[in-house]
From TrEMBL:
Protein's name according to its UniProt entry: DUF1993 domain-containing protein
Region (Disordered), start-end ranges: 63-83
Any Pfam family: DUF1993
Taxonomic superkingdom: Bacteria
């Protein structure tokens, strides 16, 4: 049996999650259009006053995935200024993040499980601990929170949407 590589445990997981999020945002934009309300209401919605808005959740999911790609592969990631305020802008950010991730060379991840990863707020990790104990859980936290914001606001998204499962 072949061991799962750091690339396999990260890039495809992030791309699939971001693609699912993009589909949920499409449903959210359609929901706002159908009900004739300003889409910015959803983009700025949050679960609690001290939590990030939907836009912030999308931005953090994007950042977590692209910074993970950079930290593990050594390939510089694109810089995004966190200024998205519309569904099209959030979709563009997701598309640009997926494009970056899909452009990463799997060979660049070789040995990254033992690479020292330092985060200013959390200290240092070996690459495998960074990916499995921080990056992937953090990524899914932001995806799940974005999903919950949409659900809380009436958008018809469910588990199949979150998991990107076809009917």
């Amino acid at each position: 049996m072949t061991a799962l590589s750091m690339y396999q445990a990260s890039v495809p997981v992030f791309c699939r999650g971001l693609a699912a999020l993009a589909k949920e945002l499409e449903k959210a934009a359609a929901y706002a259009a159908e009900r004739k309300f300003e889409p910015g209401i959803l983009v700025n919605a949050r679960l609690a006053p001290d939590m990030l808005s939907l836009a912030g959740q999308v931005q953090r999911a994007s950042d977590t995935s692209k910074f993970s790609g950079e930290r593990l592969s050594g390939t510089p990631s694109p810089k995004f200024p966190d200024t998205e305020t519309t569904f099209p802008e959030l979709q563009e950010r997701i598309a640009n993040t997926i494009s970056y991730l899909q452009g990463l060379d799997p060979a660049a991840f070789a040995g990254s499980e033992d690479k020292e990863i330092s985060l200013s707020t959390l200290g240092s990790f070996k690459g495998d601990a960074y990916l499995l104990n921080f990056a992937v859980p953090n990524f899914f936290f932001h995806l799940a929170t974005a999903h919950a914001i949409l659900r809380e606001n009436g958008v018809a998204v469910g588990k199949r949407d979150f998991l990107d499962l076809q009917a």
